[in-house]
Design brief:
By secondary structure, this protein is mostly beta strands. It is built from 8 helices and 94 strands.
């Protein structure tokens, strides 16, 4: 507002008159010529701009600039008239007056402020009404109303009047007036108090009736909500309903809020009206109807709600009113419930007592609703009605366009458009996206607008590309859905950034003015192609026949359109093109190139003059066309003479085609000088003079000396070296050839030929900090010499970087700072001075007119640095930033400038304290806090909520994956509900904030899981194994489980009611199939299955009929039964197999129904068996599968993979034999090898044989050992004393008569009970007492069989041994023999047949088990033989089971003491 940015160019070179030291800027108010100038001294010669500050707002200034040098200040410019920007008014309107004109309006008048204090263009006035309100016990003044009034166009200084309306009635206000300009609002005037006028009051409230009787009623009410004045009283009128002649009126004071009305007629409907009054008049009346003698009660809810005329914002609701509660209905309240919000809310209230149809308004388009209705009378509101069916309002155009549409230039051809997206409820339909319309404003020709559709309805930015450079565009947006477009947004204007000119200057002309000069003229670049401010021009020119080297001349002045090219080649055609350049670089060249030829001139010297043949008296000279012929060569002239002689010996001219001459009669061994000259139309040109030595001994020259290099001759890009020539071989040198080698690489020849008169040379265009070597070769007429010796290796000096950085990017990070990124240079590009390397970031502010304000810079050391943060920049300004590398040798090239707008930066902080909680199975409530204020980087536009399924009970289809979804909410929201989510599903939720610059970082992800819901219906309900009375029902899990499946409820019932068997059966199962039995035959059932989570979900239902299905076989026929002694034989004939082969049959039987009361029967068919062997025609049913003495009827059912056939029934019934017959008679008819006696005998024989083999093996292995031990024992006993013998005899006696305790050892001998047991030693069980005095009774003969271990242990082994059955008797015997010598001695003195005695010593429990048991026969199984008697004995850790039955065979020889 109070600043001016100035920019200038230095004087032209020819006008500087010395070195410029700085500039002087002077300025003052325009038109005030008597006011002294204000001066500013710019001491930096390189500075091209300056910011003049502390000026007066909205004033014209004149600014002049002059340069100065050592001699003084130069001439000032003519001066530019510049106006400072607008400011805000600094004075309020005066003489403000306010008068109330009615209850809602006041008249305001004022005088505008002094124009000198407005500081800009007066845009109008704001009239504000302020009210005092209580807020947290504090009295605060808030703005209640505001209007804008434009300034008067007729007389801006005259008094203005405006009407401020829309105020509240009978209310106190303070009125202020202010003036405003584009930058903002000025100072408010003093507050003027005013009160709106009084008006009629509002309707009374809380009308109700009490103490209702046949003759009287009490009427009660409350004052109006808004009195709108001073209340003066009430009027109560009443009458018999529909009888106006009975009307009565009662006036009451303002303090009365009740009235008792008497003398009423019994059971009569009365109409009441109550009205409040102020001095202005009566307010609207409140009416109600009651019946005398009947107390008003709450009304009943309406019924039969129906919908019609569904529109976007309304629907017609039809209903049947309920009981009115003995009072008229004063209000109908419509509540709504949406799919997004499951809570009921009031959508509208309608007062129409007798209505049966209501138009419900206030609905949102494209929203699913349910409505309910309640009635209200003087007592209160009824219960809500039953809800209507779900309905959806139709679509409408979007509610509004995108808000906060902002446009920023990204480049010369790109604009970024940003906006606040519409929320889901604002689309009013299926969103299609956003439409962006843009067009050029300043185009010379009318350009039609262009549009682009953004199909992502959650997007908040888009980049417009392919735009014209440095062009002003206007942009507007709207939202579109399936119905249409919203209204347009406000227009946003932005100019694309400056660029290089896209077209060359027009009307380029070139004229040769001499043989070495050409004058070039051109016009301006077309305005639409300038793409910025033209800073100057460059003229490019190149000779068409001279290798095409392109040269250029720069004209640093955008006001010059002509220049002269000098020092051109003579008589050469040049191609000339001109381009314009801006501060960003060179533009396009003009096309087509202009061709012009310089004038003809005298030629240059002939080239390549040499003497190929020389003798003592002759010399032949040859030459080529001059390198600069400068015209058409007409002739050549050759002259020669002795070197040093002034006399010309010879001169001759030659035509242009002859370029050789032989000179004769020369003196031997003398130097001659030959001269060759060419001639054009303009005369003879320059002469080429060469020496020759007449001799016959010419040879090639010797190489020069090694090049000599001193350190002072080494620079960063050039090296100067010298040498000493070698002998010329009596042939003068024509030129030197120089070769160099870089970094020990290959030798390369420099194209330039060195004059033989020179003995030093400077190699240029070398690389800094690089090693080089040089060598030289001399050439005369006979050829080239060898190369000289290589010079020493030298390294060029370091230099400033020759390459600039790349990939420059600038990103705003706050509203006053940006981060600059670039790609660091490689070490090799620092030209030998990387240690002092760094980067310089220079930035300059651009004003509205793209002028440069300042050139501050920041250095960062280190060649690997690639970013820097620039801070403390001015907000809402455009900056240009460049980066250059530098080291101690100097700066490197500057990057092209990167432009950035400072003032908008994406938020650097994420939303905080993000929390999510499930509300229902489809809704999650999110809460968060905004990012820290310091990290918002401006005003937030909103939040984006990202949510993605991470765990779902549903399985996705193959090839699909869960996609992240987005919702956008406004910046004022700190909570939001995600609705329509999948049930019992885990989501990952993240939130970010965004502002006009873009999206901020996302918050840390949180997970939340929706609650369980009802599952969907099970899938693929099907039936299998359907028979006449049973089936298997199966199903698949629901597609949407929506929770943990706890089980299923299967319900089935007959489809059609039947008095005999119709019933409903419910059964809970945990798996996905159920076998259902006891169904009625050929009856259709309805099956329903529902899955259960928190409750049962919807059902899947299917019908099925028991019996044959489509594709089943045809029923068999001719079922014949034949009764045998043991079974029933069945025979039938098969019918067709249906769609598939017969897989088997169901053989079913049914007890025949009899009339005897004692006969218990079952009327259902029982499946005897189900075959799976395919087709057959015969089957035998054993009586063992049937009950004895029972009459049966049979049927056969065939089945294939499609189902069963109809059954074929037997004509006769079969009576099964009695139980006695089944037990005895049936057994007699079995073959002998299946008789019980044969099986038992065979088993007994096998056991006896096994025992005999074991016994023989034991006797054989022990007999020899027993003899040796017996002999040894006898000898020892003979040597014993008499006492020892007596003790031994006593012990033997006790053992034989059961006195004392002992066991049988492994050898069958007695030992002390404390010394050993049978087999392994046991410490847990007491020793077994053996009674040896009496032999066991002789058992009856019986079959011998092995018994099961369980039965043997259960029946007989009361004190079992814990030894293993795998131990060998020999091993146990040998191991114990060495430990119990005393026991063995006793065994020797016993009966020598110790093996037999071993089996004679059994305990009492063993002996008591030898008894007969009654045979038990099972009529149902004749193949199993049960043991009928058994005895168990421990033998060396094993068990032998002997079954004793009557009539068994005699005992085996040698076992008489055992049996």
């Amino acid at each position: 507002m109070s600043e001016i940015i100035t920019q200038w160019q230095p004087p032209l070179e020819e006008h500087r008159n010395g070195q410029i030291l700085g500039y002087i800027i002077r300025y003052r108010l325009f038109g005030y010529n008597n006011v002294p100038w204000t001066y500013q001294n710019i001491t930096n010669e390189a500075q091209r701009n300056y910011l003049i500050q502390e000026l007066i707002t909205w004033k014209d200034y004149i600014v002049q600039i002059a340069a100065y040098n050592n001699m003084g200040v130069g001439v000032y410019t003519e001066g530019a008239r510049i106006k400072t920007k607008e400011g805000i008014p600094e004075a309020p309107p005066t003489n403000v007056k306010v008068v109330a004109i009615n209850s809602t309006s006041v008249k305001v008048s004022w005088i505008p402020p002094n124009p000198q204090q407005i500081n800009g263009i007066n845009q109008g006035y704001k009239i504000q009404a302020w009210r005092h309100e209580m807020n947290d016990d504090d009295l605060e003044e808030t703005e209640a109303r505001m209007i804008t009034v434009p300034p008067s166009l007729i007389d801006p200084l005259a008094e203005q009047i405006a009407i401020l309306s829309g105020l509240e009635k009978f209310t106190d206000y303070n009125i202020t007036v202010l003036c405003f300009t584009d930058p903002g609002e000025g100072v408010r005037s003093y507050k003027i108090a005013v009160k709106t006028k009084e008006d009629v009051p509002d309707e009374i409230t809380a009308l109700h009736f009490d103490e209702v009787s046949d003759r009287s009623v009490k009427v009660l009410w409350a004052p109006p909500k808004n009195l709108n004045g001073i209340l003066t009283g009430y009027t109560v009128r009443y009458k018999v309903k529909d009888h106006p002649e009975t009307l009565k009126s009662v006036n009451l004071t303002a303090d009365d809020t009740q009235l008792t009305v008497t003398q009423l007629q019994a059971t009569t409907h009365y109409w009441f009206e109550i009205k409040a009054w102020t001095k202005v008049g009566g307010g609207p009346a409140k009416t109600a109807t009651i019946q005398s003698g009947v107390e008003p009660v709450l009304p009943h809810p309406p019924t039969n709600l129906a919908l019609s005329n569904i529109e976007a914002f309304s629907v017609v609701l039809q209903f049947t009113p309920g009981f009115d509660g003995n009072s008229s209905i004063t209000k109908w309240k419509v509540d709504a419930q949406t799919a997004r919000n499951m809570t009921w809310f009031t959508v509208c209230e309608i007062s129409d007592p007798d209505a049966e149809t209501l138009t419900v308004t206030g609905l949102m388009p494209f929203t699913q609703y349910r409505l309910r209705l309640s009635a209200t009378n003087v007592v209160g509101s009824s219960q809500p009605s039953e809800a209507t069916k779900d309905f959806q309002t139709i679509q409408a155009r979007p509610m509004h366009p995108p808000f906060n549409v902002t446009v920023r230039a990204m480049s010369a051809t790109q604009l970024r458009v940003r906006w606040i997206p519409l929320q889901q409820t604002e689309w009013f339909g299926n969103p299609r996206g956003y439409n962006i319309t843009y067009r050029q404003i300043e185009s010379i020709t009318k350009v039609s607008a262009k549009s682009v559709l953004i199909e992502d309805h959650t997007a908040n930015s888009h980049v417009l590309e392919g735009l014209e450079e440095w062009t002003l565009y206007e942009v507007l947006m709207n939202a579109c859905n399936d119905v249409g477009f919203s209204r347009d947004s406000a227009i946003a204007v932005e100019r694309t950034r400056e660029a290089v000119p896209s077209y060359g200057p027009l009307e380029v002309q070139a004229n040769a003015t001499s043989s070495t000069t050409i004058v070039v003229r051109w016009g301006e670049v077309p305005k639409q192609h300038r793409n910025g401010q033209i800073d100057g021009y460059k003229v490019f020119y190149a000779a068409t026949n001279r290798g095409g080297q392109v040269l250029h001349k720069t004209i640093s002045n955008n006001a010059s359109y002509t220049t002269t090219l000098t020092e051109l080649k003579k008589f050469v055609i040049y191609h000339i093109q001109v381009l314009a350049f801006t501060r960003l670089g060179d533009g396009a060249l003009s096309t087509p190139p202009v061709r012009v030829q310089t004038f003809e001139d005298t030629p240059g010297p002939p080239s390549n003059v040499s003497f190929p043949d020389v003798s003592f008296s002759t010399a032949r000279i040859i030459w080529d066309v001059p390198e600069d012929p400068n015209g058409e060569i007409l002739a050549y002239q050759v002259t020669y003479s002795l070197n040093g002689s002034v006399n010309l010996n010879y001169s001759r001219e030659f035509p242009p085609s002859d370029r050789t001459f032989r000179a004769t009669q020369l003196l031997a061994e003398r130097y001659y000088i030959f001269s060759v000259t060419a001639q054009t139309r303009l005369g003879w040109g320059k002469t080429a003079a060469v020496l020759v030595y007449t001799t016959n001994n010419r040879e090639r020259p010797q190489p020069p000396s090694m090049p000599q290099i001193s350190r002072s001759q080494i620079q960063a890009h050039q090296i100067t070296f010298s040498w000493t020539p070698g002998r010329d071989g009596f042939a003068p040198l024509r030129y030197y050839t120089v070769q160099l080698r870089e970094n020990d690489g290959p030798w390369t020849i420099l194209p330039e030929r060195v004059d033989p008169a020179f003995t030093s040379y400077t190699a240029i265009n070398l690389k800094p900090h690089t090693t080089y070597q040089f060598r030289i070769q001399a050439t005369n007429d006979l050829g080239a010499s060898a190369f000289s010796r290589e010079s020493i290796v030298v390294r060029t000096l370091p230099a400033a970087p020759a390459v600039g950085v790349s990939n420059l990017k600038v990103v705003p990070i706050t509203t006053t700072s940006v981060r600059v990124h670039w790609n660091a240079l490689e070490t090799s590009l620092w030209n030998g001075d990387a240690a002092t390397g760094g980067y310089r970031v220079m930035y300059q502010q651009l004003a509205d007119l793209q002028t440069i304000s300042s050139t501050p810079k920041t250095d960062i050391m280190g060649i690997n640095a690639n970013s820097m943060v620039l801070t403390d920049l001015q907000q809402d300004r455009n900056y240009e930033i460049v980066v250059l590398p530098f080291n101690s040798q100097g700066p490197g090239p500057v990057t092209p400038p990167a432009a950035v707008y400072v003032g908008e930066a994406v938020p650097t902080g994420e939303p905080r304290a993000v929390d999510a909680a499930p509300i229902s199975s489809t809704e999650v409530r999110l809460r968060w806090k905004p990012p820290k204020q310091s990290m918002q980087n401006g005003d937030l536009l909103g939040y984006k909520i990202f949510y993605l399924v991470t765990d779902s009970p549903q399985e996705l289809e193959e090839g699909r994956k869960w996609e992240e979804e987005i919702e956008v909410v406004s910046a004022t929201a700190t909570s939001h509900s995600l609705v329509f989510l999948d049930k019992f599903t885990e989501y990952r939720v993240q939130i970010l904030a965004f502002n006009p610059a873009g999206d901020g970082p996302r918050s840390q992800p949180i997970t939340v899981k929706t609650l369980q819901g009802l599952p969907s219906a099970p899938l693929n309900l099907r039936f299998e194994d359907i028979t006449m009375q049973s089936l298997k029902v199966s199903w698949d899990v629901p597609k949407f489980r929506n929770g943990e499946i706890l089980g299923y409820l299967v319900t089935y019932e007959t489809t059609e009611e039947n008095e005999k068997f119709s019933k409903q059966v419910k059964q809970k199962v945990s798996n996905t199939n159920l076998l259902v039995q006891n169904l009625e035959e050929e009856v259709t059932y309805t099956f329903t299955v529902r899955a259960q989570t928190i409750d049962y979900g919807p059902a899947v239902s299917e019908n099925v009929t028991t019996g044959p299905q489509d594709g089943s076989p045809i029923a068999p026929r001719d079922l014949i039964l034949a009764k045998t002694l043991s079974s029933v034989e069945m025979h039938w004939l098969n019918g067709p197999s249906g769609r598939g082969p017969i897989l088997g049959y169901y053989i079913e039987a049914k007890k025949r129904e009899r009339g005897e009361p004692t006969f218990i029967y079952d009327s259902r068919w029982e499946t005897i068996t189900r075959t799976t062997t395919g087709t057959m025609q015969d089957f035998t049913v054993s009586y063992q599968s049937l009950l004895p003495s029972t009459a049966y009827t049979f049927r056969v059912i065939a089945y294939n993979r499609y189902g069963i056939s109809f059954p074929v029934y037997s004509k006769d019934s079969i009576l099964t034999p009695s139980k006695l017959h089944l037990e005895y008679g049936y057994l007699q008819h079995k073959p002998f090898y299946r008789q019980t006696w044969f099986m038992v005998a065979l088993a007994a024989t096998s056991i006896v044989i096994i025992i005999m083999v074991i016994a023989v093996l034991c006797v054989k292995s022990k007999s020899y050992k027993y003899k040796q031990e017996a002999q040894k024992t006898l000898e020892e006993s003979m040597a014993m004393s008499i006492d020892e013998r007596q003790e031994l005899a006593l012990e033997l006696y006790r053992s034989r008569h059961g006195v004392g305790t002992g066991t049988l050892n492994s050898a069958g001998t007695l030992s002390r009970g404390t010394l050993g047991t049978l087999g392994r030693k046991s410490t847990n069980r007491p020793p077994t007492s053996l009674q040896l005095g009496k032999s066991p009774p002789r058992p009856s003969p019986a079959s011998v069989a092995y018994h099961s271990d369980e039965e043997s242990l259960k029946c007989y082994d009361e004190n079992p041994d814990d030894s293993s059955v795998t131990e060998k008797p020999s091993e146990v015997s040998s191991s114990e023999a060495s430990q119990h010598s005393e026991s063995e001695n006793e065994s020797v003195r016993s009966d020598p047949h110790s093996f037999v005695n071993h089996y004679a010593n059994v305990n009492d429990s063993l002996r008591q088990s030898w008894k007969k048991t009654k045979p038990v026969r099972n009529y149902s199984s004749y193949t199993d033989s049960e043991p009928e008697g058994s005895a168990v004995m421990s033998l060396n850790g094993g068990q032998i089971i002997v079954n004793n039955m009557a009539r068994s065979r005699a005992p085996l020889p040698g076992f008489s003491s055992f049996v």
